[in-house]
């Protein structure tokens, strides 16, 4: 029997304490139903001698990732990666996992995972996809070229942009990182200055500036072919528009290669504007859908792809 060891994310680091741990628990339960041996531990419960065939790692601290790196280097386990913190996740290039569930967003760890892909390891989401989704300055033009609705978007160097470049109410976002965004009006220099100072403090060199869309905001989640939308969308908008939303989400998945994905979109005047795409979110907060509903589809999609790979 394949053994899966789940390691919960530290509560002091988790973006929304409880949600990350819960999705891990729910996905683990789905694997358990399908015949996998699953054990989930907190960092305090984890022992150096613990091992498994597959590890679902949501931890971000250097201490735990150094420990996993040591174990992997000894050839004592395979690793299922679910770590996000760029500078803290260290996975060796000789990772021997059959399947890697990748929530890591740092360029270093994803470049390492490229080597695992070359060795025939099934990586979800693939490192190339994670890096693309994180690189907003390249992602949005690509979506636009593929016919996905996005707000008017421009890229600027942080060192060169000025308030004079903001011609309309806009949203400023980091060019190669999730979050860190500000809504700026053309007459609000103080918010603009705060944003630029923040980006400089974070070492962000490029930002994107998107036109502010004053419409109705929604979240979406997807696990392969299963797309989760708020229930009110079906009631409030024509079926043609709902179909188009789902079609465009499918384009986002196939274009990026990220099939465990979520994001935000706005509907204004019958038009769809995708404002954010996230690889492997913690699947909580969308209207009309719960983590409990999503977890079975995540596990089903991963297991199906894994079985196909093993044929």
Q: What layout of secondary structure does this protein have?
A:
Elements: E1 3-7, H1 19-33, E2 37-41, E3 54-57, H2 62-73, E4 80-81, E5 99-101, H3 107-118, E6 122-124, H4 127-134, H5 136-145, E7 153-157, E8 170-174, E9 181-184, H6 189-201, E10 206-211, E11 216-223, E12 226-228, H7 231-236, H8 239-256, E13 260-268, E14 271-279, H9 291-310
Parallel strand pairs: 1-2, 1-3, 3-4, 5-6
Antiparallel strand pairs: 7-10, 8-9, 8-10, 11-12, 11-13, 13-14
Helix pairs in contact: 1-9, 3-4
Describe this structure as you would to a colleague.
With 311 residues, the protein is α/β, with parallel strands linked by helices. The protein folds into 3 domains: 3-125, 3-Layer(aba) Sandwich (Rossmann fold); 130-151 and 215-279, 2-Layer Sandwich (D-amino Acid Aminotransferase, Chain A, domain 1), CATH 3.30.470.20; 153-211. It has helices spanning 19-33, 62-73, 107-118, 127-134, 136-145, 189-201, 231-236, 239-256, 291-310; strands at 3-7, 37-41, 54-57, 80-81, 99-101, 122-124, 153-157, 170-174, 181-184, 206-211, 216-223, 226-228, 260-268, 271-279. Strands 2-1-3-4 form a 4-stranded parallel β-sheet, with helices on one face. A 4-stranded antiparallel β-sheet has the order 7-10-8-9, sandwiched between helices. Helix 2 links the parallel strand 3 and strand 4 (80-81). Helix 1 (19-33) crosses helix 9 (291-310) and helix 3 packs antiparallel against helix 4. The longest helix has 20 residues, at 291-310. The two termini are 18 Å apart. The relative contact order is 0.13.
């Amino acid at each position: 029997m394949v053994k899966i060891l789940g390691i919960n994310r530290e509560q002091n680091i988790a973006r929304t304490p409880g949600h990350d741990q819960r999705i891990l628990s729910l996905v683990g339960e789905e694997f358990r139903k399908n015949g996998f041996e699953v054990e989930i531990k907190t960092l305090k419960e984890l022992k150096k001698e613990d091992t498994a065939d597959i590890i679902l790692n949501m931890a971000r601290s250097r201490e735990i990732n150094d420990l996993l790196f040591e174990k992997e280097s000894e050839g004592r386990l395979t690793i299922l990666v679910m770590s996000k913190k760029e500078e803290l996740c260290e996975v060796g290039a000789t990772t021997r996992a059959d399947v890697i569930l990748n929530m890591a967003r740092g360029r270093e760890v994803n470049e390492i995972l490229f080597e695992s892909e070359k060795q025939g390891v099934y990586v979800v989401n693939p490192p190339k996809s994670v890096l693309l989704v994180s690189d907003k300055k390249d992602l949005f033009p690509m979506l636009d070229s593929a016919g996905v609705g996005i707000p008017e978007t421009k890229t600027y160097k942080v060192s060169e942009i000025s308030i004079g470049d903001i011609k309309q109410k806009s949203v400023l976002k980091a060019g190669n990182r999730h979050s860190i965004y500000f809504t700026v009006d053309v007459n609000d220099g103080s918010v603009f200055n705060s944003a630029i100072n923040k980006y400089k403090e974070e070492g962000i060199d490029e930002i994107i500036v998107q036109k502010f869309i004053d419409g109705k905001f929604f979240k979406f989640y997807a696990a392969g072919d299963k797309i989760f939308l708020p229930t009110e969308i079906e009631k409030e908008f024509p079926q043609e528009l709902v179909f188009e939303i789902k079609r465009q989400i499918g384009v986002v998945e196939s274009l990026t290669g990220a099939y465990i994905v979520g994001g935000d979109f706005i509907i204004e005047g019958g038009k769809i504007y995708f404002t954010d795409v996230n690889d492997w979110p913690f699947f909580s907060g969308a209207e009309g859908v719960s983590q409990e509903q999503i977890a079975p589809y995540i596990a089903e999609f991963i297991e199906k792809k894994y079985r196909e790979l093993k044929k």
